[in-house]
């Protein structure tokens, strides 16, 4: 198995492990909240939110080792979580109402494609490789002039490029 296949398999396994911890955490938080008197719907929403935060943090740091902008990744993660929830509910409805499966077997079967789609979107979009700030900073360190007009020199005027070059090279290194 090549390096990329091993990396993919490791990420998929870690993604599954994070999903299992999210499920356990969500269930425990839900059970405790209901036990202490919180209504079941607010308890479910709170437990789901806590599980989603846990999933984001673990997937960002452990599964994908993402070093990019965390707020942008968190927004994308929220979109993927919302889409996954809609996909899960839709597939569950199909399994129960159209295929005649029970609710629990339907949920178990729906979880497989939902997990795979969520993993693919997380890998390709939410925590994509190369979206880190170091790569973006390297590209923006060397701004190119928008216009390059080089005069013949007969008029005695400097070109737009020359003016910008002098301005750029006179700036302190940290501010370029």
Radius of gyration: 25 Å
How many strand elements? 0
The proportion of residues forming helix, as a percent range, comes to: over 70%
User: What sort of overall outline do the alpha carbons produce when their principal axes are compared?
Assistant: elongated
How does the major sheet shape up? none
Mean pLDDT: 82
Oligomer: single chain
Q: How much strand?
A: under 5%
The low-confidence runs, each spanning 5 or more residues with pLDDT under 50, are 133-145, 147-152
Q: Could you describe the 3D structure shown?
A:
By secondary structure, the protein is mostly helical. The protein folds into two domains: 3-133, no CATH class; 142-175, no CATH class. Helices cover 73% and strands 0% of the residues. α1 packs antiparallel against α2 (40-63) and α3 packs antiparallel against α4. The model is unreliable at 133-145 and 147-152 (pLDDT under 50).
